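From the thread on structure requests for the teaching lab: each student submitted one protein with a one-line request. Submission from student K.M.:

"Model Cardiolipin synthase from Neorhizobium galegae bv. orientalis str. HAMBI 540, tokens only."
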Amino acid sequence: MLDLIEPYWPHILFVLSVLMGAAAAIHAAMTKEEVRSAIGWVGVIVLSPIVGALLYLVAGINRIRRSVISDRRALLQGEIRAHVVSYDATNDLIIEEFGHRFRAMKTLGDRVTRHRLTTGNTIVALDTGDEAYGAMLKAIAKAKRSLILETYIFDRDRIGTRFADALIAAVKRGVEVRVLIDAVGARYSVPSVLGMLREGGITVDVFNGNVIMGLRLPYANLRTHRKILVIDGRVAFTGGMNIREGFSSEFSGNKCSFDTHFRVTGPVVADLFAIASADWRYAADEALEGAAWALQAPETEPGSPVIIRAVSSGPDRSVETNHKMLMGAFSVARSSIRIVSPYFLPDRELITALVTAARRGVEVDIVVPTANNLVLVDRAMTAQFDQMLKNYCRIWRASGPFNHSKLLVIDGRWAYVGSSNLDPRSLRLNFEVDLEVLDCPFAEALERRIDLAISSATEVTLDGLMARPFLVRLIERVFWLGSPYL
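Reply posted by the TA:
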């Protein structure tokens, strides 16, 4: 048989390359919404027969189709539903407290997100790993009915073991526990914490688990970067904090990295649960229903502070939701835009929005770490600093250990915090969750934190960038060319 086929191998490969290439190129042209992305993938497919099509299959198809309930209030009926709806922020309330431009932001959020802007919430910033881990572990120890944890990284180190022990203890108390870890993030430590959790009786799964082989191969590049912990439907934690000892000064001392996490209560907890439970249902094919997972009525009054919206985004029906929210926020800014981001690689649209705001007279301050854990990303983002420095934006290199926080404040009134970085992966590939917060005391507190970071930071100047050796700048531009895939 092989003897008969062997003379025709060139012809078979040619036909195969044409069929695969045509199918992949047509898919890219018909599904990509950005012309540069479509042209780039078609070029890779055409110039690299067979290999290009396979690369597109693995990394280019970035839309997961999920059939899940994404808003928990869809499960509610009668008086309970009416009670939850009473916490929705009204247009009149937003106009009275924050003005018409933030009413426009509410309209934008209503149209591009799946969750409502709600009143009657509380939010507390947890500034360090020790503070965040301590608060989360304390809440887990108090869990009575149910607990769901979704995270990107859950290391099997001393902090991870502490969390595993707390979760196992909760299961032994009769608490319903579900743990969802990203398939890529679960492999950050070897051996993985998955075995330890399963041996302790915890129901655990991985998000997009078949990252090498299997039916989910086309989605190997898509990850859940969300960090959500919901306990008893009453209290939730979210932000940028992974579970690893590198963020704990107890174990890492002066070398520990920093991050910011948040503890929230109120109606927004139900929306965070809806996001995490939808991800769980997608990964584990289990709907979290019943008395253990029942919604808890907020203890605050409708119309009271703090006003918060949960914003989920990802390569499904929520694609680029965070990007749209950022574009809207930059456009309504009048006095200041304050950004803290570990990986600052905005696309052309966001850069244009930022420099346009700066040209309008808005003070734009961007704080990035001096010490970065991803050297290639740091090189790539440095390569595009000049685009903002030429247009009245200020960029600061924060001193001290690596800071993984993601903070954004507009005019000391509107804040956006959570898991999203300002880079292509967070804005288009990852599943992210953020909080839109309308509250002056909260926004002002974040601004004070950013001012403190700037007070000891080094300002990046255009002259300083251009004075560096040409070879260094060239290498940075080469890394910048690959930034959509970092």
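TA comment: The longest helix spans residues 9-31. The chain has three domains: 11-60, 72-88+121-303, 321-485.
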